[in-house]
């Protein structure tokens, strides 16, 4: 089991939770971003964390993660098209609000995302991403703990 993190879209508060879980459970983890992240680089010196910096580009981090994904891994991303690609490879995916996506349920979420994209393109809907609340951070932490426990047993 390995943890894959789309670090470009992962807030620092969630990375702190993830890094603590990795250390406590001694899990291998791969963080991928288009820039170095000091907290992850520091953790990589003392644990089984790998930080990969990819060239900037629309899908460079996504492609790198999908290329390393294997069935039974756990991934963290808020990018629904990436979650779909990973779920199709048998990876369980958590979003930053504690949602869990698998090959069985990602199609519905992807359809909703595509519909909302169409609405935005037509000027019918303006998406505003709200900052993470303490409740959402707790939901994420609980989902991470639950999925790690399930996958490690």
Radius of gyration: 15 Å
Tally the beta strands: 6
Which strands sit side by side, in order, in the main sheet? Answer: 3-2-1-4-5-6
- Specify the number of helices: 6
Overall pLDDT level? 89
- SS-based class: alpha/beta
SSE order, as H and E? EHEHEHEHEEHH
- Helicity range: 40-55%
Query: Which descriptor suits the 3D outline?
Result: globular
User: Which regions contain 5 or more consecutive residues with pLDDT less than 50?
Assistant: none
* Major sheet size, sense and barrel closure: 6 strands, mixed
From the N-terminal CA to the C-terminal CA, the straight-line distance is 10 Å
Residue fraction in strands: 15-25%
């Amino acid at each position: 089991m390995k943890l894959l993190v789309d670090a470009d879209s992962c807030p620092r508060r969630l990375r702190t939770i993830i890094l603590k879980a990795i250390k406590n459970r001694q899990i291998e983890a791969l963080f991928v971003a288009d820039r170095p992240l000091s907290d992850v680089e520091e953790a990589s010196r003392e644990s089984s964390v790998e930080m990969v910096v990819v060239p900037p580009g629309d899908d460079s981090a996504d492609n790198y993660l999908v290329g390393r994904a294997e069935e039974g891994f756990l991934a963290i991303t808020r990018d629904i098209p990436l979650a779909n690609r990973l779920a199709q490879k048998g990876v369980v995916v958590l979003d930053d609000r504690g949602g869990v996506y698998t090959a069985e349920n990602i199609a519905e979420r992807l359809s909703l995302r595509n519909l909302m994209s169409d609405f935005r393109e037509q000027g019918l809907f303006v998406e505003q991403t709200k900052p993470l609340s303490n409740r959402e951070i707790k939901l994420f932490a609980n989902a991470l703990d639950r999925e790690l426990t399930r996958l490690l047993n």
